[in-house]
Amino acid sequence: MEQNINRINTETAHSKDKLNRLAWLLDNSIRVPGTQIRFGLDGLIGLVPGIGDAAGAIISSHILTQAAQLGAPKSLLMKMGFNIGFDAILGLIPGVGDMADFVWKANYRNVQLLNEYLENPRKTVIHSRLFISLMGLLVFSGVIMIGVLGFLLMRWLWLSVQG
Hints:
Elements lengths: L1 H26 L2 E2 L6 E2 L1 H5 L6 H18 L4 H18 L4 H8 L2 H14 L1 H42 L1
Antiparallel strand pairs: 1-2
């Protein structure tokens, strides 16, 4: 039994190390000379028009898959997915998306979240659930706001036509 636990801990440590190296390669491996500004291959891949950000999101999803295999809860996986999705959606905006790849660093954020979870699962799960709840509330509020604006627009059009 103890050997099995040691093997699992060794495998987890090995996976953490590999993911830390991947996040470093994708987000922090290249330093701008004379500054403390760092970026990685994800920023360079994102510069390729059309497919760069999609390719970056696919590569980033490897960290998400590994987190799931390490037993991360759904709330943490959803938060990590948000980081990847936000990075990919920002990438659709010319110029802004390219700068976002150099600033947002979704891979580094996701590996940090996973490391925090492996060190202190309870705290990380609470924070992830709070984040997901707030995002759900934000989406719900957005839907309600769109509905209210649609209603007001239709009312205004109706009153305009009626005279």
